[in-house]
Amino acid sequence: MPEQEYLPPRPARSYRPDRDEEDPPPWADLLPVHGGRRDAGRPPAGDQNEDAPRRERGRRAMRAAARKRQRWLVLAGGLVTVAGVAIAVVLLLPTGSGPAAVTPGTLITTFQPGELRQVPNACGAVPTATVRQYLPGKVGQSAPLPVNGAAESACNWTVDSPPVYRLMELNMLAYAPNGLASGDGSATFAAIDSYDSTLQGIADPPKNSPDPRATVTPLPGFGNQASSAMQVFHAGGAITDVATVLVRYHNVVVTVTLDGLEHSNRGSYGPVSQSALSAAALAFARAAEASLH
To answer: Assuming Cys at both sites, which of 25, 269, 271, 282 could form a disulfide with 264, CB separation 3.0 to 4.6 Å?
Structure first.
């Protein structure tokens, strides 16, 4: 059997239903024309010697065209890269010298200007003269341990000398940003939520709560928000009047409560003046709020 000549496989090409013949390569225009059509690169056998120079010129032209296309692709790729970098720089550069504006609808997770990370010592926030003026008699003082570190401070003053019984409680708490808070979740909104919730609980206690409803009075011009409240508790034959002053300063909530025995079922305590209790609680609250500035 005669040995068959080896033919290299033809490269695959995509099927083009609108074309019967293979599309000419991009460099086809550089080839000589034979017989009214552009040859694929192989001249007729009878003209091989005569067309050799032309074939060589065609090869050189193809190589030059290939190099030209390669340079153009490299240049185009470089231009695209430079344009992309320029766009990225423009997008990343700040538009002003100040801090970037907060995007509406996003949560604030850092303290904002005016907000406090910690509060002063509550016992030292009220001057001694104020304590003596509104809590007559021998006063005992104690400082409960805060549960929020430097962000919270509390102090209690007690007078237990019949017929006078007073318990003054002062608490200052600086709130931090909280994703569960209303608004943008800032520390101030967290404090607003606490202020509103506490005031609502005093004015309208839960249905099964033993606490009585309070009479609430707004205090305009005091802090960012302020209110006073008065409650009368009846328990075991004793009557206790409780004055509360609630103040919000930015992200800090100041709470002052003053208990006074109106009538005791044991011992000779009372009576008390509700207006005097409210005035004393307000004086302590003003001193505490002033210490935050």
So the answer is: 269
The residue assigned the tokens 């496989």 is 9
**Dist CA 271 CA 9 (whole Å):** 114
Q: What are the tens digits of pLDDT across the range 70-95?
A: 554 444 455 444 344 333 333 333 43
* Residue in this structure with the two tokens 């401070």, named with its chain if needed: 153
Q: What's the start-to-end Cα distance of the chain, in Å?
A: 109
Answer yes or no: is pLDDT of 125 > 60.
Answer: yes
CB 170 within 8 A of CB 254: yes
Residue 135 in tokens: 């809590």
Measuring CA to CA, how many Å separate 256 from each of 96, 129, 233, 277, 283? 45, 18, 17, 11, 10
Query: What pTM was estimated for this model as a whole?
Result: 0.65
3-state secondary structure of 261: strand
